[in-house]
Amino acid sequence: MTTGPRHRTRQQHDEIAHYLRTAIREGSFQPGDELPSEAELTRKFTSSRGPVRQAMSALRGEGLISSGRGRRTVVLDNVLTQSFDDVISFSQWCHASDIVPGQVTQRVAREPAEKSLAASLRIEEGDPIVSVFRLRLMDEAPAMVERLNYPFEFGRHVLAFDTDSGSIYQELIDQGVDINRASRTIDAVGANDDDARLLEVPVGTPLLRVRRRAFTTAGDVIESSDDRYLPWKASFTMNSTRGNPSSMSLISGD
Amino acid sequence: MTTGPRHRTRQQHDEIAHYLRTAIREGSFQPGDELPSEAELTRKFTSSRGPVRQAMSALRGEGLISSGRGRRTVVLDNVLTQSFDDVISFSQWCHASDIVPGQVTQRVAREPAEKSLAASLRIEEGDPIVSVFRLRLMDEAPAMVERLNYPFEFGRHVLAFDTDSGSIYQELIDQGVDINRASRTIDAVGANDDDARLLEVPVGTPLLRVRRRAFTTAGDVIESSDDRYLPWKASFTMNSTRGNPSSMSLISGD
DNA sequence: CAGTGGTCTAGACCACATG
DNA sequence: ATGTGGTCTAGACCACTGG
């Protein structure tokens, strides 16, 4: 009964990390508390220091713990980082925030790539792409305009998909597209004619723009997109700890 | 006496990571290229696999490379992430980007906290705070307006500081203030009269707003601030990898 | 198949924090 | 002085990818 790894024989470092995460989330170790020392953990899991340190490194990356030379490792937080999926998908983020997502598709097209878009997708100018232009809703109200561009290799899955029905991201996952990494650039831009009409605001209204590129594990570009949010509907927050990476979440503005 | 001039002895994994980062930034390894195998790197740096893997792990966390069982490690991107310090401080970020930072102080005051500010700083309404209002420059050109608010306990270090001379963040560090964690909220806002005058743009111009709260290790609020950037001067980028947290950086828009 | 990166062991030394 | 976490070595086996 004790050994329960029925899922493909869980790795030791995974098992240790899972134990610590669970204990932290459930309050066995609370923020401010000291974690067991590495030596204790090696004994508890009959392991060497390698896997223990690998698990610690993972938790450190998640902002859960803080460690340092000579000091005991301390719990910082008990809130788990938003998952990658929640951050990449408007639909999933809405569901996580108890908001009903919606979409009104304006245009879906297969067309040749313009020069700048081709560069962004790392394909040749004129190669076929699939582009999608949608208005996204939060609880029925306009919240964001979304412009998505895919190389045909990935976009072909989108052409056969009812873009009014939900999450393209989920559809790509389901079709076996290996979405591994994403890079976002955030800035501000004034609403152009299309943005203004769809979002029902004056031209020039400040919008929060998120440009995103998504990659496969092999490094191929899956998507290059441009999302423009009404800033009172959504904003980004980030938490960073000294010496650790940041974690990000999208926050509802209502 | 020991041997000649010694900077702090650099750790092996640091040296390896630095070599790879530099080579990637300078284009010796371009996005899509394969990195040298771990075995090659151990030979090149006369090291064992541990440090090599530690360096790889760091670059993976920065979104620069992607690796996996049986596959060669591949370069994903060549944009370098900034550290926590660089991201919290305008001055340090400028230096890291080879931009000359500047500042024109508009106002430094000790005054009682208004209600909303008091709540944000977790002090009582009417308690003394120190507030700073500055225009920040990049290579002599207006780039950002900065409104900083400190509880008096921390702000007193700022009153004695020449706010036209550089980084308040660095000054606080030097004074021994324990800045450990920060939370940022990013959205868009139109320039108000003050913003417009200082940044030399029309009222209503879309600005990228970053509201920041900084905390000590003990959880006390050090700072509550509101920075508004010209969006063509600066933007935020974030890298997230499936199963890993995100890392963030501020990117020059020139 | 050979080569790669992912995992693991069992040692070791060091810098640092605390008592 | 002891114990901690950070770094490093020199091996090993495995899962997987690619030719």
Automatic annotation (TrEMBL), chains A, B:
Pfam families: GntR, UTRA. Residues 10-78 form the HTH gntR-type domain. Keywords: DNA-binding, Transcription, Transcription regulation. CDD domains: WHTH_GntR (cd07377). This is GntR family transcriptional regulator. It comes from Brevibacterium epidermidis.
